[in-house]
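Retro notes (design track)

What went well: tokenization of the new backbones is finally stable.
What didn't: we kept losing track of which sequence belonged to which structure.
Fix going forward: every design gets posted as structure first, then sequence, in one message. First example under the new rule, 244 residues:
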């Protein structure tokens, strides 16, 4: 099994999340409005912690998407590949309930694959990203899905995201291609931009809502329809802003 060391990270000029593979992380910011770990202790129900993992090829924008969701900003400039794995906690509201998303950001590079596989089985949701300007990242989605089916829980919620939608001039993967692939695998799909923030909140809120409804619903109750929710919220946000 490959392990990332700090000296290895320094050699490659990469970002490392110290000790994150063993349960703590430099990225553990535990925020709704950047709350600290201690201030949040009593504000959420322990049962409503949902583990979500970001996966996809190196450079598709996983870290950037998480930073945009957590801090509402995009840091342009040189690309610093993730080493190993790190997590960020973020509290979101679902129907007036506080729900904590523990979001694991994985390294897309092949050499860290065995490290990240170990985290799949605890994940309740998985955001699978490709870059709309890089065909290879889209072509690799099938291989990612094969891995996911091998290592993750059977009922894991998967969402396909075509990131970097702001880069219209460099686009090589059409929106419809992403939609078609997602349909083939029966997973929800949307295009996102970690730069402009397009659909970033929506992606994470849809996951939070789906997992919360699953946790709370009775067998006879109608199931939450994540596809319908995403479509309705896309329409709302293009007209009025804000998530319901
Ligand atoms: N224009 C644009 N650039 C983006 C977007 N998302 C990420 N980038 C850029 O793409 C590069 C890679 O982004 P990262 O977030 O580091 O990619 P990653 O998937 O976390 O990469 P690994 O850590 O190696 O797995 C960086 O230079 C980002 O600034 C986006 O939505 N739009």
């Amino acid at each position: 099994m490959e392990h990332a060391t700090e000296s290895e990270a320094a050699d490659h000029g990469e970002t490392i999340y110290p000790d994150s593979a063993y349960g703590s992380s430099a990225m553990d910011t535990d925020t709704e409005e950047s709350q600290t770990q201690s201030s949040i202790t009593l504000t959420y129900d322990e049962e409503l912690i949902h583990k979500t993992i970001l996966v996809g090829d190196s450079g598709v924008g996983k870290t950037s998407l998480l930073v945009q969701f957590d801090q509402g900003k995009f840091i342009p400039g040189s690309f610093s590949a993730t080493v190993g794995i790190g997590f960020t906690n973020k509290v979101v509201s679902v129907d007036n309930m506080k729900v904590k998303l523990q979001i694991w950001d994985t390294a897309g590079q092949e050499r860290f694959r065995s490290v990240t596989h170990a985290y799949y089985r605890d994940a309740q949701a998985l955001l699978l990203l490709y870059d709309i300007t890089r065909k290879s990242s889209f072509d690799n989605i099938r291989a990612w899905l094969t891995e996911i089916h091998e290592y993750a829980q059977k009922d894991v919620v998967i969402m396909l995201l075509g990131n970097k939608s702001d880069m219209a001039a460099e686009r090589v993967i059409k929106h419809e291609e992403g939609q078609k692939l997602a349909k083939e695998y029966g997973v929800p799909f949307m295009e996102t931009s970690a730069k402009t923030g397009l659909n970033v909140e929506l992606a994470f809120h849809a996951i939070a809502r789906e997992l919360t409804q699953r946790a709370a619903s009775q067998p006879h109750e109608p199931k939450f329809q994540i596809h319908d929710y995403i479509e309705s919220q896309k329409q709302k946000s293009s007209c009025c802003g804000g998530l319901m």
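Added context from the reviewer: Residues 58-64, 76, 79, 81-82, 107-109, 163-164, 166-167, 193-195 surround guanosine-5'-triphosphate (CB under 6 Å).
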